[in-house]
Amino acid sequence: MNRSSGKILSLLIALLMGLAALFLIGKERTAEAAGSENCGCHPHKAEKAFIHLPVKNGECVSCHKPSGQKHPKVKKEAFLMTDKGKVGLCNECHDRKDTKKFVHPPVASGDCLDCHDVHQSDNKSQLKGNGAALCFMCHEKNKLDRKYPHKPIAEGKCLECHDPHQSDHKYMLKAEGTNLCMKCHDKSAFAGESVHAPVATGECNSCHAPHGTSFHHLLKSTVPEEMYQSFDKQNFDLCFGCHANTLADSKRTDVETNFRNGIINLHYLHVNKVEKGRSCKVCHDPHAASQPVLISSKISGFGKWRIPIRYTKRDVGGTCVVGCHKPKSYNRINPVQYL
Predict the structure, then answer these.
(1) Would you call 25 helix, strand, or coil by DSSP?
(2) Domain spans of the chain, in order of start
(3) pTM (predicted TM-score)
């Protein structure tokens, strides 16, 4: 190698060493400097559809507060986070979510990151999952897999009924009793001259399972859907959960039911048959009715025909004018005589 080439090589080596020194000085910058340069070493924290606002605005130091130590040579100690990154940090910007009577356990323990990603997400509100998929990260999905699921469950919309953070109502429901149900269901269907006691007291879940069930209409147990069937007490398991299961046992009684002509048990007459035993809902509406004792004004008949019922209640009996038989009256004290 000649003398000229050696000088050039020496100059190149000196230049490279100088550049390396400048690089190291730049890399071992203070945490404040790292923040002001938008954390260039972490370029993949703002690529998804929903980005935490401080990240989007390049304000990493809103959460990662510089300690003054050199970064990245010093890693964890270069930045400090309020409450070690738990809810105390979140509450520096966000309103508290743990002030009501019932609080979601992750909120109560300050573990916001159980549900939210602090930087970015493909889901709104930076959630770690979409809809019910997020809930099932903790809650057991198999407990909600039913033949007949409640529509919000089927659509993965748990938040139709539940607040994800807190509530004044048990199970973090958005309202209590029928006030919750009426947010979706037509309130007029649950009002009338007579109202079923569970409806009147706001206890829809006495009969219905709010998430799902093996029985139609989200019922907790069996009620015949058909107009006619052979009498079997098991078919009326839901109704007999509250009402006396002996009301249709005896052809004659003076105690089991008020629906009797003298001692002739008219529940027995209508229901307790080997063939064509009537279902409760043939005459009674399970929610509310415009007539006494939940008697429906019209019931499903044959084809499109709706069978009309006009019922008049009296102190010791009543009269039924109905499309399926001649007008009939009954009296518990002085029985009506029929030929």
Answers:
(1) helix
(2) 46-141, 212-331
(3) 0.80
Distances (CA, A) of 53 to 32, 63, 93, 115, 120: 19, 11, 11, 17, 9
The rounded Cα 36 to chain-centroid distance in angstroms is 44
Helix (H) or strand (E) holding 178: helix 178-181
pLDDT digits (tens, 9 = 90+) for 144-170: 899 999 999 999 999 999 999 999 999
Mean pLDDT of the chain: 88
Q: On the CB side of 2, how many CA atoms lie within 13 Å of its CA?
A: 2
Sign of CA dihedral 278, 279, 282, 283: positive
Paired tokens of 260: 């009797």
Alpha-carbon dihedral sign for residues 90, 91, 97, 101: positive
The structure tokens 């007490």 sit at 233
Comparing CA positions, the residue from 142, 282, 287, 163 lying closest to residue 217 is 287
- Tell me the two tokens of residue 233: 């007490």
CA 213 – CA 238 distance, rounded (Å) = 13
Compute φ and ψ for 195, nearest 5 degrees: -130, 135
The mean pLDDT value for 233-252 works out to 94
* Nearest partner of 293 among 301, 302, 284, judged by Cα: 284
Total residues found in the chain within this entry: 339
Contact between 289 and 194 (Cβ < 8 Å): yes
**Torsion-angle region of residue 276: left (phi > 0), alpha (psi -120 to 50) or beta?**
left
For 12-63, how does the pLDDT look when each residue is reduced to its tens digit (9 = 90+)?
666 566 555 444 444 444 444 434 445 778 878 889 999 999 999 989 899 9
Contacts of residue 144, Cβ cutoff 8 Å, sequence gap at least 6: 153, 211, 212
> Is cis: bond before 54, omega within 30 of 0?
no
Distance in angstroms (rounded) separating the CA atoms of residues 138 and 110: 16
Q: Among 138, 88, 124, which residue's Cα sits nearest to residue 109?
A: 88
Backbone angles phi, psi at 185, to 5 degrees: -85, 150
